[in-house]
Amino acid sequence: MVFITMSLLVKALVFVTFFVVTAESAPESALITKIPGFDGTFPSKHYSGYVTIDKEHGKNLWYYFIESEKNPSKDPVVLWLNGGPGCSSMDGFVYEHGPFNFEPKKANTSLPLLQLNPYSWSKVSNIIYLDSPVGVGFSYSKNESDYQTGDIKTAIDSHAFLLKWFHMFPEFQSNPFYISGESYAGVYVPTLASEVVKGNKDGLKPALNFKGYLVGNGVADSVFDGNALVPFAHGMGLISDQLFEDVTEACNGNFYEIDGLDCEEQMTKVQMDVNKLNIYNILEPCYHGTSLSAFDIRSLPSSLLQLGKTEKPLAVRKRMFGRAWPVRAPVRPGIVPSWSQLLADVSVPCIDDRVATAWLNDPAIRNAIHAKEENEIGRWVLCSGKLSFDHDAGSMIKFHKNLTLSGYRALIYSGDHDMCVPFTGSQAWTRSLGYKVIDEWRAWISNDQVAGYTQGYANNLTFLTIKGAGHTVPEYKPREALDFYSRFLEGSKI
């Protein structure tokens, strides 16, 4: 017979309680308690830090996690990825749908002032901002060979991050999980989603409760994206009817590959008509001036611009670059040139990144959000020049088809004034899947106004435009973005 004294029973209960709490709660060391420049109270818990995905190499991915302001124990967990390749997801945090609005610093202050963002996506979801791949933002490796990466390796590494992150935050393992992103994340999202699905099938633990994904103004397929600009420019009144007819005839309707001198001449005319516009939003001015001519890739050595062996010299010479490779320069298999090579340490064309750059390089901010110091990993930049990146996944259409036919929900959304990855390409490739239309083209409403247009397909695929928005939709239309995001996550009609 075993006798248990009251004191031993109490100790045992304390031990069990302690184990349960520590085993099912987020790491306290990652908790953010205060951020300089914000004097209010966080409406939900914030966490940030590093997840080591390769101890031998010292390979670390950095994240910022915000619990939902509504019901964190039940609301979806959403991973957010910015594109590039090579751009930090803190772009989305600072300028798009993060918890704060940033007021540029005044003369007597050293940091931007922060106010709560009424249209933060954390209003309705738990959200993880991940700097991926390694070498981007605050993510780093002690072995520089890790900065040679590509689509497939990035997906594998991000999946490794997710498995470790959900192990660190086990209380969220049963929540619905979605992957989202924009721009070159049109590649990151479906490739990572496919890794997650494969990992679940292979029995990797923890199993992720993956439900679907969202892609905003995302690259998908070199042919569809490459043919998107000319129809977009014509529809927006940027080129004349006559030029549209001439270029269509000269190029036989194929703007993806320039074939022949006549086609080259007409495409040059198109280029001349649009090259002084802000490629990310044709309605907006360019921060770096009214012209992109200073960033015209014709001024750079052509040896830096070989995206693939099939690249034609003319197409190479006429590239413009941004937070995704513009459709005038569709992404093809091969090494994508680094940002430092392309821009020689100049900021991304047309993008005013002063607030994010100043904020994320302030020592007090980096300390508060658990990021390594500048003398350890270098300055934070919007888009990294460290990477040698290989676009090795090919067209995303096969990924989208496999995922949607497997029952996962997909929202493909486009700001309709983006010339970098125009909606005309996304609309065309979603239609090309051949799914039955179950919700015919119609307006969708936000705040009692037409916010854009949508078409719904079988197999849980939805295409959506946002009226007046550019490449980074929530930056231009935050209220409308929160509306469609909320409706998609809850499964209601947009």
Task: Describe the 3D structure.
The chain has a single domain (29-238, 277-494), classed as Rossmann fold (3-Layer(aba) Sandwich). Helix content is 32%, strand content 19%. The protein has 17 helices and 17 strands. It has helices at 6-23, 90-97, 151-168, 185-201, 222-226, 229-235, 241-250, 261-274, 313-317, 339-343, 354-360, 363-368, 374-377, 397-405, 423-432, 473-476, 478-490, and strands spanning 31-32, 46-54, 59-66, 77-81, 100-103, 113-116, 126-130, 140-141, 148-150, 177-182, 210-216, 334-336, 388-391, 409-415, 437-446, 449-457, 461-466. The strands form 3 sheets. Strands 1, 2, 3, 4, 7, 8, 10, 11, 14, 15, 16 and 17 form a 12-stranded mixed beta sheet that branches. The protein has a 3-stranded mixed beta sheet with strand order 9-13-12. Strands 5-6 form a two-stranded antiparallel ribbon. Helix 7 runs antiparallel to helix 8 (261-274). The longest helix has 18 residues, at 6-23. The chain is globular, with a radius of gyration of 23 Å. The N and C termini lie far apart (66 Å).
- Please report the total strand number as a whole number: 17
Overall mean pLDDT:
85
Instruction: Give the termini distance in whole angstroms.
Output: 66 Å
Q: Give me the Rg, rounded.
A: 23 Å
How much of the sequence lies in strands comes to 15-25%
Q: Helicity level, as a percent range? A: 25-40%
CATH topology (fold) name: Rossmann fold
CATH superfamily: Alpha/Beta hydrolase fold, catalytic domain
What is the correct CATH architecture?
A: 3-Layer(aba) Sandwich
User: Biggest β-sheet, characterized?
Assistant: 12 strands, mixed
* Tally of discrete structural domains: 1
CATH class: Alpha Beta
